[in-house]
Write a structure and sequence with these properties.
heterodimer, A: alpha/beta, 5-stranded parallel sheet, 21 helices, 5 strands, B: alpha+beta, 5-stranded antiparallel sheet, disordered C terminus
Amino acid sequence: VNEILLVDDEADILSGLRNALRRNRTRWNMRFALGGEAALRELEAAPADVVVTDMRMPGMDGLALLGVVRERHPRAARIVLSGQAELGAVVRASSVAHQYLLKPCEPEALTSTIERALDIQALLANDTLRAVVGGLGTLPTAPALYQALTAALGDPDIDVKKLAALVNQDVGLASRVLRLVNSAYCGLAQRISSIDAAITRLGLNTLRHLALTVEVFRGFDGRGGVAFEQLEQHALLTARIARRLAPTPAAADVAFAAGLLHDAGKLVLMSRAPDVYERVVEETLRRGESQCVVEKELVGADHAEIGAYLLGLWDLPHAIIEPVAHHHSQRYVNADKSAVVRIVAAADALACEAAARPQFQVIPLETLGSAEDLERWREVARAEAAAKW
Amino acid sequence: VCTFKADELLPADAGSMRAAARVAAHESMLLENLNDAVVGLDAQWRVDAWNRAAERVFGWRRDEVVGRRFLEVVPSRFPGDASFDEVLERIGREGRVRWDVRRRTRSGEWIEVESTAVALRAADGTITGYVSVNRDVSLRKRAEAALRASQERLQRILETLNEGIWVVDAGGTTEFVNARAAEVFEIDVEEAIGRPFLDALPEQHRSLARDDAASLLGGDPVQHELMVRRRDGSTRFVVLSRTPLRHADGRVAGAVVVLLDVTALRQAREELQQGQKLEAVGRLASGIAHEINTPIQYVGDNTHFLGEAFTAVAAVLARTREAVRAHCSTPVREELDRAEREVDLEYLLAEAPGTVAKTLDGIRRVATLVRAMKEFAHPDQKEMVSTDVNRALLATLEVARNEYKYVADVETDLADVPPVTCHAGELNQVFLNIIINAAHAIEDAGRGERGKIRVSTRREGGHLVVAIADTGCGIPEDNRDKIFEPFFTTKKVGRGTGQGLAIARNVVAKHHGHLTFTSAPGVGTTFFVRLPLETSAAQAEVA
């Protein structure tokens, strides 16, 4: 039974949630706290797997509460359920929340979000996976710049100049971020030539995802040779296609970041267990089977799981971890839990198709969209593959 | 000229001699004191008399010029550049010639003189000499020219003024109307002059200006705004200010009416106000949204719960009934039947689930509307941002539903188009205006059946094209070039300000786009909003 803590300053909301989520009572033990302070007391009394909180509350608000939760109860998934839809509020919350939901939220949507958070937690708590990853040696720590930028999101008075200075400290990193900005967003009317401009034009949220990717790839630099470069190319193309397939600008951001990181697990395998990974590739080609199946057999876990595990350790938003974890799961995509998972899976398949590299076994495109969709998607993929970047 | 020598002419009578001398002295004095330059010439045009005025006007002393040929001393130009011979011939023929001549003074300056030349003849008719009397008119000519220039300047100012000027005399009769004033009231200047102010106005403006006409000549300066309906249906807003004209002694000499067309100013003001209104609505919507969303959350949650609870209770009840029917005695079964009939259980079981579903639908609609309201108004957006136009259109359709839901069905055909950098709130206002116009047009067509509003987007090269088509009454040929004019409206008072499309066109222009339309009377109208996409091939190449 999972422990779910729901926090709001309105008793009516809490009783409504109690009623609406009642159907999950056999799987969840739901507890309710009226306000931030009460929530912390609840957590001291007994830990929770998921904390769902309102943002605007008297006394300790949602932002402050989740900050403390991250510190004292790092294993709890942090979800915001707020009536505030302003961009500023959402961005600030994303510094501490794994997920942001808007009121009014249907019980099905809330249930699904909580369940997916539990899935990701299960992944992190999975002993087999932990053993496999542990056997691969030390993993890169959470990217420093990404963390700094994420922390800055929570500050309502962030100073663009100060942030830019922070990024610019690492000259190599800054220039790679800018290169990525300009290649990924070649649709921008002007070339972005400074970190300041990148922050104001793209927003801090998008920028931190780009910085994250650069840091991730650099963390594995020089250990994979040609295969590594090919993987980086494939990641960028997948990201660009995913961005174009997303239905809204906000979803485009997430899809882009998830596209870049979807094969993070392969990076881990390539760098930490190059011999095993080579065998995985050989076997995959020889048997004509899914790479995930071969990985499970030879490594004990597939690259999707390993990648998601790594990003989970780094405390990334669930919206990014989820597509990384499930981009090879036909079942998950079919269940239609998240539009971004489907988009990343499709972008992955399209990028392989566009680059004519069928050895990367992916979910068949035909199962991901209608014939009409496919036609449109392929056009997008062709354009992105042909674009200069 | 004759110079008299008293002695030679002396008659025998000494008394008459003295009298003659006195006359000569008087004449000489007169001559010397004349303001006109008098020159006496012999038959060969040599100077023999030269009065003081001549010395002053031409700059030469008498002793310097006597005996010299006049035209050598004072070069002259005669009208029509007549030659000396022609001049002589004319004087000889006419005896006395009066003309304007330009003469050069000693200092080299050319002056304008009004000259009279007289030929002196002997008894037999031969010319013995000439007299030339010259009046310096340069100053007068210059003053006249200056006056003319000043009048012309004044005229030019009055005609180029942006303000209309209308002047009436003390009797109220129109003395002067400038072109701008005539244009404002669509009248003919010539016809207005000489008529009373009110009579000079076209029929439809008389009622507007009646008060002005009545008090035109009395009282204090007055200023107020007039709404002038033009023949083409457009409307102008004119500030009229009138001021009495007074003589030096304070008597009223007439009045000046100044007319300033403030239509453009007013439009700018209304645009600003509309912007502010939009912002206020946006802020309000955002605040209300937050307040509404909280109760919607728990009303929705609780309704879901009631639905589930009912289903569960109904299931238990069904099993209870089965058990009772199977195992209980007749009185218990009858008791249960009666209780079921009392509450009409059949009805409850049939209707309750549907009612819950309908309630949830209603809640969803409120939630959608609240979200649309916020998206429509965009309160927290000051700069242009990348915007999904399809989404903006859907939000606008949601907000405008009340305008069209009784007259038209909406069809959307939204293509997969890239985002556009824009002020979403302002663009939504444009879409809203067009959609409301479409609904009105369908209503006005009066076909008695529901019309159709079709909203579509597509990409056309570097542009995104939004087409909003209606099956309304169409725009008559005559009005097509006017519908974007500010304050032009064919709608009844209260239904439209005539500002919507004018502002819409400005907003679209601000986004470097175009607002156009096609229309067929009786069939419908389609408006096209064409917006440049942020990505052009050239820009992508640069990046």
